[in-house]
Amino acid sequence: MVLVSSSFTIAEKISWYCALSMALVLVLSCCESCESEATVRIHRMDMNDDKACDEIYVVKEGETLQTIGEKCGDPYIVEENPHIHDPDDVFPGLVIKITPFTGR
User: What is the pTM of this model?
Assistant: First the structure.
């Protein structure tokens, strides 16, 4: 009986160590992915600053037609996008056409 009890105790300790190890691996992998996601976001932001806007632009949160026009060099966004009835009613996900200003 003593032999069975000690085997059970050893097995229980091993299972606890395995569970703790798995929890540690999960926590470390979450931290690593958060850091890498933040790095990717920063890298994308740097790339977006240097790059001109595409012809089709998707509005992001916090943007206005004025900020998009300044960023993309298109002061005539409202005129080129007849689906925008109210310039103040711009929302994230709205798709607009961008044509950079060429001295019209």
Answer: 0.48
